[in-house]
Amino acid sequence: MPMTTATNTKGLSGLSFFRAYPYYTRYWIANTISRIGDSIDSLAIMWMVLELTGSTLLMGTVMVCNMLPNIFLGPFAGVLADRFNRKKLIIISDIARGLLVTVLAFLFMTDRLAVWMIFVVTALTSVFETAQHPSRMAVRPSLVRPEDLITSNSMHSFGENVAQMIGLACAGAIIATLGIGGALLIDFLTFMISAFLISLIKIPSATSSDNQDANLTVARLFKDLGEGLNYVRSTRIIVISVTLACLTNFFFGPINVLLPVFVKVNLNLDVAGLSQALLIQTVFMLLSSLTVSYIVKKIGERWALRSGLLLIACGYALMYFAKSILAVIACISILGFGVPIASAGLQTIIQRNTPAEKMGRVSAVMSTLALAAIPLSTASAGYLGEIMPISTLFGLLGILLFTCIVLLTSGKTFRSQTA
After folding, report:
1. Cβ–Cβ under 8 Å, residues 153 and 140
2. Which residues in the chain land under pLDDT 50?
3. How far apart are CA 183 and CA 327, in angstroms?
4. Model pTM?
5. In the chain, what's the furthest Cα-to-Cα distance?
C-alpha cells in the first residue's frame, strides 16, 4: 500500500499530487538533487580528463567505463532489488558513490591523480549506480496509488530534466570558481542529502521473509534472474513495452551524432545554433512532463502513449524537409515533446503489469536492453551518415520508427491491456 495521507487521490496532478504523497515527494527531491550532482560531476570529470591529457579518445573511454556496468550488471542488480531491502540498497549506493567522488577530488587536489584512477573510480561509481537503479525504479510505484502512476512517472521525468538543466547550467560557474575538486565535493554533498532524504521514507517491503532469510548464492542469483526473464517473455504486454522502449532508444540515440553534423554541414551553422536548438528541445520536454497527466485525462493512456511515440517518429521524419535552423528547432521540439509522454506511458504499463516482488528484475531488463540499444544505433548512424545524406537518414529512421510503432500498438494485446 502506498504511503499517502490522501483519502481521494484519483487524477491528482501538480502540487496536490506532491501534498498527497509526502514520501514520494521526499523521494522526488532526493532523486532530483542527486541528478543535479550527477550533471555537475559528469562535466567536471570530462574537464578533468581534458586538463590532464588533452585527449578526446580518453574522454570517450571514460564514457565507456561509465556505461558498461549498466549494460552488463543491470539484470543482476534487478535481482538484488527484488531480494534485499531496496531502501538500504539506495542509501548504501548513494554513500558509496559520494565517498568515491570525494577520493577522486582529494587525489586531484593533491596532484596524486593518475588517469587510470579516473577510469577505476568512474567504473566503480557506475557499478554502485547500477546497483541502485532497479531499486529506485521499483520503489516509485509503491509510493503512490495505481491511478496516479502516470503522474508519478511524468513528475519523475520532469525532475530529471530540470536537474540536468540546473546541473549543466551551474557546472561551468562552479568549476570556474571552486575548481574541479570543489565541483566533485558538491556532488558528494548531493549524494549525502539524497541518502538522508531516502532514510526518511517508509518503503513497503516487496520481498518475502523466505527470500530475505535465504543466502544469495551464485546458483540462486541466476535462478532469480531466470525467473525475471521468464516473466518478461511470458507476459506479452511487457514484451511489447520493452520492444517499444528499445526501438525508441535505438532510433532516438543517433540524434546526438547526426544533429551536430546536420547543423554544420547542411545549414552551415556553428555550435551556437546547435545549442539553441537543444535548449528549446529541453524546454519542450519539460512542458511535456508537466502536461502528461492532463493529456492522459483527455485522451486516455493508450492514445497518450501512442501519440508520444508517434511524435518522436514524426519529429525525426520531418527533419528530411528541414532547411533552416527554425525548421530544425520545430522538428526536435516535436520530438522532445513526445519523449516524456512515451517514457511515462511505457513505465506505467510495466508497473501495472508486474508484481511488486518482480519489479526490480523486470525494470532492470527493460532499462538494460534500452540502454544497450543506444551505442549500437549510434555506431550504425555514424556509418550510415558517411554513405548517405543526413537528411535522408533522418527521414528513413523516422519512417521506420513510425511503422514499428503502428504495428506494435495496433494489436489486440496492446489495446486490451492499456487504458
Report:
1. yes
2. 1, 3-9, 209-210, 213
3. 37
4. 0.85
5. 64
Quick one: which of 164, 185, 188, 148 has its CA closest to 25? 148
Check residue 121 and give its pLDDT.
93
Contact 136, 76 (CB under 8 A): no
Distance of CA 278 to the CA centre of its chain: 17
Residues 6+ apart with CB under 8 A from 268: none
Distance in angstroms (rounded) separating the CA atoms of residues 41 and 125? 11
Element (H, E) at 326: helix 325-352
Using one digit for the tens of pLDDT, what is the confidence trace for 348-371? 889 989 998 899 999 999 888 888
pLDDT, position 380: 81
Residues 6+ apart with CB under 8 A from 153: 140, 292, 343, 344, 347, 348, 351
Give the pLDDT score at 239.
92
Distance CA 15, CA 19 (A): 6
Contacts of residue 50, Cβ cutoff 8 Å, sequence gap at least 6: 59
**32 is written with which cell numbers?**
532530483
CB–CB of 333/402 below 8 Å? no
Query: Do 318 and 398 touch, CB atoms closer than 8 A?
Result: yes
